[in-house]
Amino acid sequence: MMLKTSTDGYIRLSLSELETIPLHLLVAGKYDEVSGFTEFASEGLPAISIGWDWEWRIMGGKLRPVRVGEPLCNLLLLDASGCLGAAGTAQELARFVDNIEWIAPTLGYLATVANPGGELNAS
User: Fold this and answer.
1) CATH number of the domain enclosing 81
2) Distance CA 34, CA 48 (A)
3) Which domain, by its residues, includes 25?
């Protein structure tokens, strides 16, 4: 698929098209001991970029990172009726992010690249 940036700087595509594009962890970091951020991106230019904040929460009796707030991106999603707009895109991307495998890559990155000592607590 050939991605194009519109004159307003956004890449427009459908959710089903987005689901076919491989995304990889670009960067992750910690704000403090209980929260951080993650950004995934596509290869090539223009690159899709989707980033979000997360925090440690107890879910189902287990402590795990959970996305908080809406993802930030350079996308506007489309459906059969046209552009979903910023709010509609944010809602769809929140569901998208919650269903991709981001936790293991994020924690792996934090344990190795962002913190070579392997400790996950803030310095």
Assistant:
1) 3.10.450.610
2) 27
3) 11-112
